[in-house]
Amino acid sequence: MPELPEVETIAADLRPHLVGRTIIRCDLRFPTIVRHPEPETFIDAIVGMRVTSVGRRGKYILIRLVEELVLVVHLGMSGHLRLVDPATPLVAHTHAVFDLDDGSQLRYTDPRRFGRLLLGTESDLLVARAMPPLGPEPIDPGFGADDLYQRFRNRKARLKAVLLDQSTIAGVGNIYADESLYRARLRPDRIAGSLSRSSVRRLHEALRVSLLLAIKNRGSSVDTYRDAWGEVGSQQEKLQVYGRAGEPCFTCGRPLSLVRIAGRSSVFCRRCQR
Ligand SMILES: [Zn+2]
Questions:
Q1: What is d(CA 69, CA 63) in angstroms, rounded to the nearest whole number?
Q2: Are the C-beta atoms of 202 and 211 separated by less than 8 Å?
Q3: The pLDDT of residue 224
Q4: Alpha carbon of 96 to those of 40, 108, 141, 148: distances in Å?
Q5: How far is the CA of 204 from the centre of ligand 1 (A)?
Q6: Contact 118, 62 (CB under 8 A)
Q7: Fewer Cβ in 10 A, N or C end of the chain?
């Protein structure tokens, strides 16, 4: 599933091409990919709207339009948002096509259909519960180690589960949770509230470093992730633990362990992570 670095890469790629463009036509080929509002209302509301900015919040792409409307794209497990020439043949599982006033097309494809499109003002989407409340951005310079410590305090859940909880911090999924915990030398099954301030400081730094490095490398194409041009990222070649269960730890050489926490697999080193 695309996480913060992958979504950031797509948003940054699309930004210079989308800002200032007007959506002149919208074709929903699989209307239920729109979760809010009703598909017909979505089309009526979006056509004629001009893009004012392209950003990201957690794992959501936010395409801001005039009149405070936001087109929100969540890629789910296998969603792709691509900007193409309209002559490009439509691939299977293309669910939404947006024609732009410069002749280009923005297409959303999603074979597994876990992704979704939303449209509304930010407050509308929160009130309608179309978008969940999200915690702070871990790479925001204003989000400090002490903020993370306060968010972990009194939490009885395991560290891995708390990192995946989008209302605690936004944008971290299985890949970067495992990578950050390895970098911070913390076991994924530790109780979050048991961490000392210095451990939380290490984890805060590890999250920042892991996420920023992955953005620099244009994300991890471990599954079906592709950028806005359909190209793979390169961070998957640099992952330290994710997807490497049973393989030797890069620090101590011992085979990496696999555990299930909160229904997700976690890979870690029993010697290096405490
Ligand atoms: Zn190790």
A1: 9
A2: no
A3: 81
A4: 13, 5, 35, 38
A5: 20
A6: no
A7: C
126 in Cβ contact with 105 (< 8 Å): no
Q: How far apart are CA 233 and CA 4, in angstroms?
A: 13
Q: What is the distance between the alpha carbons of residues 259 and 38, in angstroms, rounded to a whole number? A: 41
CA of residue 158 to ligand 1 center, whole Å: 20
For residue 23, the model assigns a pLDDT of: 98
What residues flank ion ligand 1 with Cβ within 5 A? 249, 251-252, 269, 271-272
The predicted model scores a pTM of 0.95
d(Cα 81, Cα 117) in Å, to the nearest integer? 11
Q: How far is the CA of 249 from the centre of ligand 1 (A)?
A: 5
Query: What pLDDT was estimated at residue 222?
Result: 82
What crossing angle do the helices spanning 197-216 and 145-152 adopt, rounded to 10°?
120
Residue (of 237, 255, 233, 234) closest to 246 by Cα position:
255
How many CB atoms lie under 10 A from the CB of residue 4?
28
d(CA 174, CA 19): 31
Active site residues: 2-3, 59, 264
Residue from 28, 130, 15 nearest 62 by CA = 15
Distance CA 219, CA 211 (A): 9
Give average pLDDT by consecutive 10-residue segment, the chain, 274 residues: 95 97 98 97 98 98 98 95 96 97 98 96 96 97 98 96 97 97 98 98 98 94 86 90 97 98 95 98
Exposure b/e, 127-147, CB count within 10 A at least 16 = b: eeebbeebbbbbbeeebebeb
